[in-house]
Fold this protein.
Amino acid sequence: MINSYLNKFDRLTRNQRKELYTPVVPIPAIYSITDFFNAYGLGRPLHPQIMCMRLEEQPDTKLKVMPLYRSNFYRIILFTNSQLAFTAGNTRQSIGQNCLSFSYPGKLESWEREGRLYGTVIYFTQEFADVDSTHSGFDSQYPFFTLAGDTLLSLDQTEADQLRQLAEEMIREMYSELPDKLSMVRKLLAVYLHKIRRLYTQKMGQLPAEQKANQALLNRFRNVLDEYVTQLVSGQQSVMPSVSLLADLLGISANYLNEVIKRVSGLPASAHVQRKMMLEIKALLLHSDDQVAQIAYRFGFDNVSYFNRFFKKQTGQTPLEFRARHQV
């Protein structure tokens, strides 16, 4: 029966296939700090727009595995000693001692924790911190809240201690009964962001000019790839992304793009494209009721059999096997 459906789908025209689905957002979005606390099992934040806390004091009942999601707020975690496998976008990283992790509206994230986490975490909204990501100077003022900041920022012990001290001040204010505590937290947060910007700029400034330029191209490439795949899933694009297509959008040659991306990341540009595609395909398999054939079409596959082979080559499972094994 399934094979019969897939064969019929392969014979449909592109316009006929469009009638089979309604564009969706495949990856769940968590719109508020309160919603995140509910989803992660953290209880209730003291304030809907700002929350500061120690990681080691979070309840043991919180999720050990956080599925892929997008949030609509900012978060800065200072890890002082943690065991965490963290996935941001297409990159999986292991977190250890004295490093900063940044989250911002729209960023893709998931993680698995192996034990108790140590450090501090600050959640805040755009309104509370008075930051505007649409402002022309945002990227230079807060470079760690862009794709450039998707990697962890390593700190020495002195740097970590200074930031920890500021975070502790914010935590004390949050839990105080003083009438002006939010005003004080807002000022402390501004200092915290300023100190992080100084550290980030100093550490990035130590890179050679060529490495900075190559890193900037990697960030532009990931931005264009992310935007294109989002448009593909929503039906605004219909052609599967390729290195050549993305290079054209960036105004450079495919060979140059691939050379730089591989030099900076260790992977060819095509591997980044495949990882991004798989990330979104898996999310759609888990978070929608769409048939495999419909999902194949969303991502520009004209042949469902080829889509199944592509997916199995990447995961060792067919799309249906993956859905059956992982869907809650």
In short: The chain has two domains: 2-21+216-326, 29-205. The beta strands are 29-30, 50-54, 65-71, 74-81, 84-88, 91-95, 99-103, 108-113, 118-124, 153-154. The first strand starts at residue 29 and ends at 30. The mean pLDDT is 83.
